[in-house]
Design goal:
Length: about 250
């Protein structure tokens, strides 16, 4: 299984202790399955063209979204049969059931629950790039890289943080139905708070709109940065997630 590579990346030192718990969960999963594991710091950005580095100098999220797919491509060219990317804030909390699909590529599933302007809960169902999987000779990666590069090079204005990540992938998914690893989810702050509380309407909506049981999820460090959820809550979350059943 050492022809399968799993990659994570973050600047060091890590900003929150709970991220280390996420990284540990991925490393343990790799060890169990015999996958090779690689952690890379800001050296990730060395793969970017100089013009992109300049354009994204104030938007590291966009730079990371491009750099991850360039690193995946490089790793496949280096001889790996399959390369998996997991964000550093992605936790595999049910490793026995976090099984990579037998597909040439796949993206993750986002079921995002938040309040609208009328204070009503609303569900946004998309795909995300906190989980990415590409096998050799897949039909999508080169197109994705070329499209992302073209969008960035042609853009002359401001760019939303998810410009070439979830926004682009969701737009493509809405047209072409990209393969999705449904068990690789994403937890919004309201869902996190309900999990900690032992239940709630946001968590119920999350389960109702999820296609399969969630066995790993991106915990959204950006929500912590924005103080939509606090570090102590995230510490609590990572401690209890292995015992939480996110069955549909």
């Amino acid at each position: 299984m050492h022809n399968i590579l799993v990659i994570q990346s973050h600047r060091t030192p890590l900003p929150y202790l709970w991220i280390q718990a996420c990284i540990n969960s991925v490393q343990d999963w790799c060890n169990t399955n015999g996958y090779k594991y690689q952690f890379i710091d800001d050296r990730l950005f060395e793969l970017l063209p100089d013009e992109i580095v300049w354009k994204t100098r104030h938007q590291k999220v966009i730079a990371t979204d491009l750099a991850r797919i360039l690193l995946i491509k490089k790793s496949l060219n280096d001889g790996y049969k399959r390369v998996i990317w997991l964000d550093s804030d992605f936790m595999i909390f049910n490793p026995a059931e976090f099984i990579i699909p037998d597909l040439s590529y796949a993206v993750g599933r986002e079921v995002w629950v938040q309040k609208d302007k009328h204070d009503n809960l609303k569900v946004y169902k998309k795909v995300h790039n906190a989980f990415l999987m590409f096998s050799e000779n897949n039909s999508f990666l080169d197109f994705y890289i070329e499209t992302a590069l073209r969008l960035l090079m042609n853009n002359q204005g401001t760019m939303p943080p998810q410009f070439i990540g979830p926004k682009l992938l969701t737009a493509l998914h809405n047209v072409a139905c990209l393969p999705v690893m449904e068990g690789a989810g994403m937890l919004s702050p309201l869902v996190v708070k309900d999990i900690i509380a032992g239940g709630g309407v946001a968590l119920d909506l999350f389960k109702q709109h999820s296609n399969e049981k969630i066995t790993g999820a991106n915990l959204c460090i950006s929500s912590c940065h924005r103080q939509e959820i606090f570090e102590k809550e995230m510490d609590n979350l990572v401690s209890i997630l292995p015992s939480v059943n996110l069955t549909v």
